[in-house]
Amino acid sequence: MLPFSRLVSARLSLTVAAATAGLALTSCSPVVDVTPAKDAANAACAPMMLALPDAIGDAKLRKTNAQATAAWGDPSQVILRCGVNVPGPTTDRCVSVNDVDWVIKEGDPVWTLTTFGREPATEILMDPDKISSATVLADLSAAALKIPATRKCVGQEDLQNLPSSK
Length: 166
Description:
Blueprint: H1 4-26, H2 45-50, E1 55-56, E2 59-62, E3 69-72, E4 78-84, E5 93-97, E6 100-105, E7 111-115, E8 121-126, H3 133-144, H4 156-160
């Protein structure tokens, strides 16, 4: 029989080994290859990146290989890139979710959602057949708010309230 101190030491060694193996198994998902945005090094991206959620719906945050990028799900269901070109005036659909305006371009199958009125802009790529766009925008809005808004989307109802030139 082992002395008490050696028994404790042996159990501690086994516990550390098991924990290390558990960590190795949880990080088996490969790093997601994402092309960084042109302005990914913009310091304004940092507060938003630090505020990103650990999960969007059931999709867990994964590691990426590029600055100012993030991915959720395995395989990836949501890809985020900060530092993309700021959208100008557009006739594309623009929605406001929790005080963040997003320009939506519906593709087949991938949709592109880009913050409007924030510089630098943030782009989200997602497949609405795999994850709800409402969930994605709701879960990412708190982080997107870290980049201050300088403009808002203008809808048809806003145009009706403009003063006339008469």
